[in-house]
Design a protein that fits this description.
With 429 residues, the chain is mostly beta strands. Helix content is 0%, strand content 42%. Among the domains are: 36-123, Sandwich (Immunoglobulin-like), CATH 2.60.40; 126-230 and 300-328 and 390-425, no CATH class. It contains no helices and 24 strands. The strands form four sheets. Strands 9, 10, 11, 12, 13, 14, 15, 18, 19, 22, 23 and 24 form a twelve-stranded mixed sheet that branches. Strand 11 (143-144) and strand 12 form a beta hairpin. It starts with 35 loop residues before the first strand and ends with a strand.
């Protein structure tokens, strides 16, 4: 699916310390849809001074006393927060990005709770990354757009020096009220990050950042993952075995004598002698050369990005496009085993039977393999050479990053056929 460059308008929201239900401000309805109003009790979310700090404020419009029951939808915990408060109550025990369900009412004389109204409160998401810290962007609370992007609506994003947020090549859309960056980076992958063996590198994905304001210097790095190395092919095994050695060429010569009495009784044990040993078998042939290594896998494309800042004063946007490198080819496969050694030559046996000490009869026969002269088989041949290494995988493609600063400025898009492209767009004077 192609990345759509259509912009979703960003609306102004209140500054630090003001309530998000102030009718005089144009708050972002997508970000602060948690505002509740009742004819008896008003509910609002208050932004704290520090990033990530919020509170939920309850203000009674009359002099009655009210009670609050709080349900944490993540942990499932239920807490009785305020029992009979009058005027104003502030719940400071809330976390950025969490969802709470509040019941407001009164406890009756029989201790039963008479609920007046119930409201689900979404605490705005803040993102803070400390100096030299790295965080993988948490998309578990994101909505999914019609184009498949994980959409996060963020109030405040603070990136300290050398900090980094990783998107891991996902399709991300960040709608941010305020970005403060002291040289922080939003990157798809770490430099040199590599896919597993036999796996292609992931693309840098798609990143849309829509910010109301940006202060400081922000680095955006769209980088494809390096491709994995090729998998080594299997050894040839028997199909690559070398030829068997030749059989010995010169027969051996042996004698075998037996000794019997007149009635066929054995007078003494047989005698055997190897007069000429048979020639040994020839050595086995060398195994076949192994298979060529498998090629490395392709590197991922750089990915594409759109950065839109409505109020970019006193800011710089640095960007880098980098395609993933192709993976290394695997080593060649192991060569085939050497051939078996050849068999020794057979032996010719002259067998003579003696009776009462005199040769009675002699006959000749062959033993194959030899039994008396103990012929020697040839040596096993050498293992075949390993195959050639596989080819390096192809690199990914450089795609583009588009930057729009202020509503009236035209969108600038950058791409390059080079492996890397660095540039920045400075402050608007």
């Amino acid at each position: 699916m192609r990345l759509s460059w259509g912009l979703i308008p960003l609306f102004c929201i209140l500054g630090c310390g003001r309530s998000f239900n102030d009718d005089k401000s144009k708050h972002n309805d997508e970000l602060f849809q948690n505002i509740a109003a009742n004819e008896l009790v008003d509910v609002s979310v208050q932004e704290g001074i520090r990033v990530g700090d919020y509170s939920v404020v309850f203000e009674a419009r009359d002099n009655s006393k009210y009670s609050i029951i709080k349900h944490d939808q993540l942990s499932g915990e239920t807490v009785e927060l305020a029992l009979g408060f009058a005027g104003k109550f502030v719940d400071e025990d809330v976390k950025s990005g969490y969802v709470y369900n509040y019941e407001v009412g009164k406890f009756l004389a029989d201790k039963s709770f008479n609920k007046i109204f119930q409201k689900e409160i979404w605490i705005p998401i803040d993102i803070k990354v400390e100096e030299s810290e790295e965080k993988v962007l948490d998309t578990s609370r994101a909505a999914i757009s019609s184009q498949g992007h994980s959409v996060l609506i963020i109030n405040r994003m603070r990136l300290s020096k050398n900090s980094r947020i990783l998107t891991e090549g996902k399709k991300i859309q960040l709608k941010v009220n305020s970005i403060q960056s002291l040289g922080g980076t939003i990157a798809s992958f770490r430099r040199g990050e590599k896919a597993d063996t036999g796996v292609s590198g992931k693309s840098g994905g798609e990143l849309i950042v829509e910010a109301k304001s940006l202060e400081g210097s922000l680095h955006v790095v769209m980088r494809g993952q390096d491709g994995g190395d090729g998998q080594r092919p299997p050894a040839l095994g028997k199909i690559g075995q070398g030829a068997k050695g030749q059989k010995g060429s010169v027969d051996g010569l042996a004698t075998f004598k037996t000794f019997h009495g007149p009635m066929g009784s054995e007078l003494e044990p047989p005698r055997e002698k190897c007069n000429i040993p048979p020639s040994p078998g020839g050595p086995g042939g060398k195994g076949k050369k192994g298979r060529k290594g498998n090629p490395g896998l392709a590197g991922g494309n750089s990915g594409v990005a759109l950065i839109y800042v409505e109020e970019p004063e006193l800011s710089k946007i640095f960007f880098e496009l980098e395609a993933g490198k192709g993976g290394a080819g695997s080593p060649g496969g192991t060569g085939g085993p050497g051939g078996d050694g050849g068999d020794p030559a057979p032996e010719k046996v002259a067998e003579t039977d003696h009776e009462d000490g005199r040769p009675k009869q002699t006959f000749e026969h062959f033993n194959d393999p030899p039994e008396i002269c103990r012929g020697i088989a040839g040596e096993t041949g050498p293992v075949g050479d390993d195959g050639e290494a596989g080819d390096i995988g192809p690199p990914g493609e450089i795609q583009k990053i588009c930057i729009k600063r202020t509503k009236n400025e035209e969108t600038q898009c950058f791409n390059s056929n080079k492996t890397k492209r660095r540039n920045y767009v400075g402050s608007k004077n």
